[in-house]
Amino acid sequence: MHIENITIEQYRNYDSLSLEFDNQINVMIGENAQGKTNLMEAIYVLAFTKSHRTSKDKELIKWDSEYGKIKGSIFKRNRTFPLEVIFSGKGKKAKFNHIEQKRLSDYIGSLNVVMFAPEDLNLVKGSPQERRKFIDMELGQVQPVYIYHLGQYQKILKQRNALLKDLQRQSKQDRTMLHILTEQLIEHGSIVLNRRLQFLQKLREWAVPIHHGISRSLEELTINYEPTIDVSEDTDLETIIERYKAHFTSIEDREVERGTTLAGPHRDDLMFEVNGRNVQTYGSQGQQRTTALSLKLAEIELIEQEVGEYPVLLLDDVLSELDDHRQSHLLNTIQGKVQTFVTTTSVDGIHHDTLKQAKMFNIHNGYLK
Predict the structure, then answer these.
(1) Distance from CA of residue 228 to its chain's centroid?
(2) Which candidate, 196, 212, 73, 90, places its Cα nearest to that of 143?
(3) Chain-centre distance of CA 49, in angstroms?
(4) How far is CA 359 from CA 279, 287, 327, 330, in A?
(5) Helix (H, G, I), strand (E, B), or coil: what is residue 194?
(6) pLDDT digits 0-9 by tens, 193-221
(7) Given 92, 207, 254, 338, which is the most exposed site by the fewest CB atoms within 10 A?
(8) Cβ–Cβ under 8 Å, residues 207 and 298
(9) CB 8 within 8 A of CB 44
């Protein structure tokens, strides 16, 4: 799978830009605040219909413009397909092969992308929300139905939290609606949890040996999922549902007292250990970065295993954050098999044969130099 070309109009700091890409390595060179990351973001948006940097779509539209548009041609399964995402005051439209997709879950997965940016180095030591987002974005690419259940879960969770706030303020409480929302929350939350546990099993199969290799066989990585109920990766869906039911019954009074939902996938986390020690708390910066890199490289292999083709890799200003050993391991892994986009202020100091074969683009103030 690779992107053949992209055209962006009225997007961030770009009026209009059209680029033809190499199917191996593409390097965007430019000083800071010139539009390199905006271009990388546009590729990400073409895949997911939303940004990894903001939740507000209107921020993607160029100042004083009425719309923003991203178009691209992708090559997958030995055919070329056009993709298009349009943002305006009326919302957004996503088209695959010229046909507008009514649901987000029908579009996502058309183009598989793995993004690796400096903030991803905080994946290990950052907040649980970042780790949940990591799972959700990658799982959604290979199982679009997951997006539907996650979206329904988040919608019901918002309603349930609002109701719990109301009940918290009432002396006489009718909990009928709470029980209905709890049942709906469990229905979708159980599927979300079940899919995450299955995903983690597959991710671990790739991440553990990759981490072992990067650490020169000195470190063993352990990844554990930490849910709010007592389940394991072998627990079936029916059992997850029953355990959620029992747990929500036991904490109902506490939830009303606190005015918020205290259990469910939105409170789960991942825990990483290196040689038996919690790397989030006790790991060195090098160990944390190796863990983050291992997870990203594992994503690439997992997506290939699930969809039959390698995803597109976006390396946004991340090579300069890695030492020579990790940098070389990353570039050696992707060489010849993954279309890769790299942003950097300079290629000086990045000594690798992969970059010598790259197609170079110089970006200055939203224009190609």
Answers:
(1) 22
(2) 196
(3) 12
(4) 37, 32, 19, 18
(5) helix
(6) 999 999 999 999 999 999 999 999 999 99
(7) 254
(8) yes
(9) no
